[in-house]
Amino acid sequence: MLPKEWHRSTLGEIARITSGGTPDRSKPEYWGGDIPWVTTGEIQFNTITDTGEKITAAGLQNSSAKLFPLGTLLMAMYGQGKTRGQVAKLGIEAATNQACAAILLNDNNDPDYFFQYLSSQYEEIRELGNAGTQKNLSGGILKGVLVPVPPYREQRRIAQVLTTWDQAIATAERLLANSQRCTRDLMASILSGRRRFREFTDKWRYVDLDAVFVRITRKNSTQNTNVLTISAEHGLISQRDYFNKSVASANLSGYTLLHRYDFAYNKSYSAGYPMGAIKPLLSYDAGVVSSLYLCFRMRSDVDADFDFFRHYFEAGLLDQEIEGIAQEGARNHGLLNVSVTDFFKLQLHIPTAPEQRRIAEAINVARADEARLKAQVQALRQEKAALMSQLLTGKRRVKLTVSETEVQA
C-alpha cells in the first residue's frame, strides 16, 4: 500500500525510453571527436562525467547515435555477468550505443529519485530479460516496469537523503581502497626485503621450499565430507558455503585430508593469480581437497612463522619461481604443468624467524585496519538498503519544510 499522496505508474507513462547507436567503425572521421559516447561497461550505478570513447558531430549525424541531456538515466540492456540492469545518470551531455536504454523523465519527476529506485530494483529488473542463451532487456520491457511515484518535492527530499548515504559510502570506499593499496605496498616492500626494520641486520637467505615445508599426502581415511575450494577472497572455503552445494565427486576417499594451518596450492591460473593460488586452511578444523592440489605444512623442527609465509604466498612472491618451472605451453584445462619435485625445490628468499614474526605482525595490523574499513563499508551499504526499502515504498516518510509543503499542496 502506498501513501495516499503517492501513485503507482509504469516507467513508460512517466518517461520516454529510447536507445542510441554506434557510428560506423570503418569511418575514422566518425571517431575521436569531442562528443562523449557511453557503452554498457560504463554504466555502474554511477554518475557519468566522462567516457572512454568519443565521437564526432559527423558520427552523431550519420548514425543511429543520439545525444542525450544531462540528467538522463541510462540502463544497460545487454551485457555479460552483472552488467545487464545496472543504472547510471548522465552528469554530462552524451551519446550512447544501442545496448544502453536512455530514460528521459517527464517534467515533475526527479532523476535522482528514480536513479535510486531503479538501482534498488536491479535484481528484479535484470530478471525481466527475454529468454534465450543470453537474456536481454528491451525498451518495451522497461516501459512496463512499475514504479512508485511520490509528489515531486518528496521525490527530491528522498533523493537527497539517499545521496547523503551514497556520499558516506563513497568516502568509506575511498578509505578502504587507500588502505588496501598501502597494505599491498607494505607487503611488497617488507616481504621482499627491500624495506627492513632497524633492529634486524642479518642477511636474508635462499632455501628450498622443502627445507621449511613437508608435503601432505594423507588420504581421506576419516570420511570427511567438508570439500574445500580456493577462493581469492575467502581462501580455502567449503564448497557448500561458497557454491551452496558440493560439486565434488560422490567418492571422496581419494581426496587429500587437510587440517587447520595446512596449505594447498591450486595449479589453476585465475584472475589475480596467474601462477595459481596458495592458501592456508583457517576457517575449519579439517577438510578435503582434490588430489590435483599440492598440499603441504610447516615442518615441526623448523623455527618459522606461519603468518609470514601465508602473506609471502599471497603477495605472489613465488610466482616468478613457479613460472620458471611450468612448462611453456603445457597447460591442460587451465592447469599449470608443475611437477611435485620441481615445486618443492622452489627457492624461498627469507629472513630469520624473529624478523619473520616482526614482518607478519606489521602486515597483520595493516590487514586488521583493512578488515575494519571493509566492515564499515558493508555496514553502510546494509543500512542504506534498509532505509531505501522504507523510503522508496512510503513506509517511512521524509519531513518536508513548511515552504515545501505549501508548494506541494
From TrEMBL:
Entry superkingdom: Bacteria
Xref: SUPFAM superfamilies: DNA methylase specificity domain (SSF116734)
UniProt cross-references to InterPro entries, sorted A to Z: Restrct_endonuc_typeI_TRD (IPR000055), Restrct_endonuc_typeI_TRD_sf (IPR044946), Type-I_RS_S_subunit (IPR052021)
Pfam hit, one: Methylase_S
Domain Type I restriction modification DNA specificity span(s) in chain numbering: 3-174
CDD domains the record matches: RMtype1_S_EcoN10ORF171P_TRD2-CR2_like
Keywords noted in UniProt: Coiled coil, DNA-binding, Endonuclease, Hydrolase, Nuclease, Restriction system
Sample GO molecular function, one term: DNA binding
Recorded coiled-coil stretches: 363-390
GO annotation, biological process: DNA restriction-modification system
PANTHER family, alphabetized: TYPE I RESTRICTION ENZYME MJAVIII SPECIFICITY SUBUNIT (PTHR30408:SF12), TYPE-1 RESTRICTION ENZYME ECOKI SPECIFICITY PROTEIN (PTHR30408)
Family statement drawn from the similarity comment of this UniProt entry: Belongs to the type-I restriction system S methylase family.
Name of the protein in its database record: Restriction endonuclease subunit S
Species of origin: Stenotrophomonas lacuserhaii
Lineage, highest ranks first: Bacteria, Pseudomonadati, Pseudomonadota, Gammaproteobacteria, Lysobacterales
